[in-house]
Amino acid sequence: MKIIQISDVTLRKADAASLSFKERVEIARTLDRLGVDEIELPALRDGKADVLSNKTIASVASSARLSAAVGLTEESVERTWESVKDARGPMLHIMLPASSVQMEYLCHKKAPAILELARTLTARARYYTEHVAFSALDATRAEEDFLCQLAAAVLEAGAESVTLCDTAGIMTPDECAAFVRDIRKKVPALEKARLGVELHDGLKMAAACAAAAIDAGAEVVKASITPLDVPSIPDLSAYLSARGEEKGLRWNLRTTELSRAAGQLQWLMQTQRSGGSPFDSGVDDGGTNICLTAGDSIEEMVKVVLHLGYDLGEEDNARVYESFQRIAAKKHFVSARELDAIVASSAMQVPSTYRIINYVITCGNMTSAMANLTLEKDGEKRQGVCAGDGPVDAAFLAIEQIIGHHYELADYQIQTVTEGREAMGSALVKLRSNGKLYSGNGLSTDVIGASIRAYISALNKIIYEGN
User: Cα–Cα distances in Å, from 48 out to 35, 51, 83?
Assistant: First the structure.
């Protein structure tokens, strides 16, 4: 049985710049769970942010190999390696044009210079890992002699796989099969390497061309779980499921999970293209995709805090930075959402003007949610009873009834911080008063209690400052 490997190019070919940090990680996690053999990552562009993205994806991919594209310099090879070296079997992916038109357009180089660059980059990548892949871009429009020289050169320099790319997407299935057979015949070293194809869908025949290439000896197919200009994984799976056994082909995809995974990621990508995010709460995130690391200075952290809407004093910034460093030392990164929670728990600690005495919340599918709260202020107990659209809304309305004022709820988040039946819930409430944000954090074994405590925490800060 010949094993056909699926290399997913969704993250490499999609507009990664418009994907949030969470979306990239979720795509990688889903692909890894699906059983693709390789997850391809784009070349580093945005410096620290892209490095952080690669490192995080490397930490969540437990079975798939990460194939990270390198740039056109030896320095880019080293930087890319540092970003994925902790992954399971990381691979460095060199991509260079093979056709005259693309050599001039993409690299401003002639064929001899491209050949030498391919050798240099492959040798440099091989210094870091035995897993080195090479893709010949626009291979179907290249001069055949040069393409064969290029493939032989990178294999000699240490590449373990060569991918032939029909970048223009103009081949028919018969032509594709003949092309693959011809290159295999003229480059003997391919017998000991993996030959792959990346077929663009210009003629809407990419999946048929991929099937023909497999029949002609290709072992790796570049595909995408989402609709992109390459064969889709569902289409390849349909072909392999229907004809694989009789052709002696085997693959590693978990086909029972394919439909759900494809639907989930297609929905995610469509939401992203429409300008939204399935991870959004519906509230302005204030920079959710910003991430900080332990190496960031207090000045960089303060810029993010200001971006989130907080105007803290020097002492509060120092307390937040101390807490931030403590958390960042244990993680790869601290997201803006997490920084929100740090500000809520570390900054603007004030005396408790209002204190929770007790609360009773009732709700059900046959009755409106009701909240009965008792707070204490200056030794006096004050009670509020309100109905609301859900238990949290009822509780917040009851608080407003007690204090006699309505504040704009700028953001509200809940999450669990421990596991099990008696898990602790953490809530973050952000109230806006006179244009300024005040955040409160609450912990409890129930999310309603955590939410009430978070609201009271933010409220006390507003009162303390006289707003």
Answer: 29, 5, 10
